[in-house]
Design brief:
The protein is globular. It contains no helices and 11 strands. The N and C termini lie far apart (about 40 Å).
Length: about 120
């Protein structure tokens, strides 16, 4: 079992920056892939960034160049640095972990943190 806990979500103006944090605990959390998912109002949850697999880090096209995923192995923490936020980035951001080869089927989820971007 892996437990995930996110923090850092808030309401901001367009063009602002935010840094989300995810603390992983439990059994060997560093052995799993970790990523950030987003669920916008009325839309399905989607992988936004992370899920490093064979040295490749996934980024959703719409966030490339603005969002940066990182993992601190010593602290078992994942981060999502979000710059130049836009209203379409609004949603609940979830930290998730699972098998490296199965990014669409995470095994573990955090409770989510709300990000709201006003125009």
């Amino acid at each position: 079992q892996v437990q995930l806990s996110e923090s850092g979500g808030k309401s901001v103006q367009a063009g602002s920056s935010l840094r989300l944090s995810c603390t992983a605990s439990g059994r060997a959390p560093s052995s799993y892939a970790v990523g950030w998912f987003r669920q916008a109002p009325g839309k399905e949850r989607e992988l936004v960034a992370g899920w490093v697999w064979r040295d490749n880090t996934f980024y959703l096209d719409s966030v490339k160049g603005r969002f940066t995923y990182s993992w601190d192995n010593a602290k078992n923490m994942a981060f999502l640095q979000m710059n130049n936020l836009q209203p379409e980035d609004t949603g609940v951001y979830y930290c998730a972990a699972g098998l490296h080869a199965a990014p669409q089927k995470p095994l573990y989820w955090g409770q989510g943190t709300q990000v709201t971007v006003a125009s």
